[in-house]
Amino acid sequence: MHMGVAERKERHKEDLKREILDAAKLLFTEKGLEATSIRAIAEKIEYSPATIYLYYKDKNEIVHALHSEGFKLLVSHFEVLNHISHPFERLKGMGRAYIQFALQNPDIYKLIFNMEEPLKHVANCFEEWDEGDRAFDILLKTVGECQKLDYFKDFATEQVSFVIWSTMHGLCTLRTTGHLSHVAAAKASDQDLDQLMSSIFETFVIILEKLKT
Amino acid sequence: MHMGVAERKERHKEDLKREILDAAKLLFTEKGLEATSIRAIAEKIEYSPATIYLYYKDKNEIVHALHSEGFKLLVSHFEVLNHISHPFERLKGMGRAYIQFALQNPDIYKLIFNMEEPLKHVANCFEEWDEGDRAFDILLKTVGECQKLDYFKDFATEQVSFVIWSTMHGLCTLRTTGHLSHVAAAKASDQDLDQLMSSIFETFVIILEKLKT
DNA sequence: GAAATATTATGAACAGTGTTCAGTAAAATT
DNA sequence: AATTTTACTGAACACTGTTCATAATATTTC
């Protein structure tokens, strides 16, 4: 017996899978990715560690589930911007949303973009990897619309999209891994860092704007 | 007793530290970062696991040593390009060298740029973190020289440098983590991927070139 | 040379990890 | 009420990084 038997049984019945995921997400963002153990997750939801394996085959499967959820969250950040009619303004919004997402969920961001394990899992499962492609499709579409308005018209849509993604991803990764703060001369507060990040982003936006013919 | 006592004693005496590092590097690039254990390193050099702790305080210290070495290697890739007089050509060469380094040493690249543990170690030690700053200084200097020749003249040197670093880093990270191959429609061979990477890089170069007034 | 000392290497252990599995408690069905 | 199905768990396995008392080896002193 572990503890608190009767109380929990009524609280949650079959959405244990959800609860495991929530606990994992919480611990991941709290303690970091590697520092979160199955045992810790089990303790948080007041179950035995072995129970978790009745709902998830692996630790990887939990990571993959969070991966999937995180991506949906990112895409939802993008979809909010659909009302912006001007494609370049929408593109700018996407950039800001991307940065915001990375700063607000640094561990989820790392989980999604800087780890290969979840991707391997996706590759093995032959699953669709929906969200990833969808996010990139949104970018492709937006860039394409920009090109109709004479933005970066001399370039292939795909290439420009990859450049944009690379820049945003590189910026966010440098930030979340701490490299930005190490190189930045001003080793000051996080707010200054975010300001630096913003100014780098704005510089990139201006660069893109200058490509308008 | 472990094995092979007499044989090794003559082979190496005090450069055991080097040998540990070489074994670690080999295993890291072979098996991956997390999958390499102290015990495996010990076995490779035919010593007891405990012996390693006589030469390195931590596993982190080993990682940090590899981090430092890897960075020196990258910087050396840059210094070869010093003979190129035209700064923008030199900048292009740096980009290509950066990509080449990332593709040839993907695990070292991840170690350097996608892990935060080594950076924390650096932060705690108050050590110089020489190489990192030096590499960025080289970039800053090159960008500055380009600006004297009317490349991206309307921009702050630091901001442009960060944008360039972000783009290169993002591209390499997307590649080494496998995201590029997942999104790329052609899920074909690695060579096609490298071609895609090159074309993205060339697109970025053209973008930078267009900023010349 | 032998004895005392300083160096270097190690086996065993500790606390932690992911994971499995036989066995138990509870619920559902007959 | 007896039986089957489901849900859960404790204990164990093989692994991880790390420490420490002990043993083997070099080095120095007499």
Q: Mean pLDDT score of chain A, rounded?
A: 87
- Write the CATH fold name of the largest domain in chain A: Tetracycline Repressor, domain 2
Question: Which assembly state applies to the chains in this document?
Answer: homodimer
Question: How far is it from the N-terminal to the C-terminal residue of chain A, by CA?
Answer: 71 Å
Shape of chain A: elongated
Low-confidence stretches of chain A: 1-9
Number of helices of chain A: 12
Q: In what range is the share of β-strand residues of chain A?
A: under 5%
Q: What is the number of independent domains of chain A? A: 2
| CATH homologous superfamily placement of the largest domain in chain A | Tetracycline Repressor, domain 2
For the largest beta-sheet of chain A, the strand count, sense and barrel status come to:
none
Order of helices and strands of chain A: HHHHHHHHHHHH
What gyration radius of chain A follows from the Cα positions, in whole Å? Answer: 20 Å
Helical content of chain A stands at over 70%
How many E-type strands of chain A? 0
Secondary structural class of chain A = mainly alpha
Structural features:
homodimer; 213 residues; mainly alpha; Arc Repressor Mutant, subunit A; Tetracycline Repressor, domain 2; 2 domains; disordered N terminus; DNA-binding
Structure description:
- By secondary structure, the first copy, chain A, is mainly α.
- The first copy, chain A, folds into two domains: about 5-55, Arc Repressor Mutant, subunit A; about 65-210, Tetracycline Repressor, domain 2, CATH 1.10.357.
- Helix content of chain A is about 75%, strand content about 0%.
- In chain A, helix 3 packs across helix 4 (about 50-55) and helix 9 (about 130-150) packs across helix 10 (about 155-175).
- Chain A is built from twelve helices and no strands.
- The interface of A and B includes residues 113, 166, 174 and 204 of A.
- The first copy, chain A, binds a DNA duplex (30 and 30 nucleotides) through helix 4.
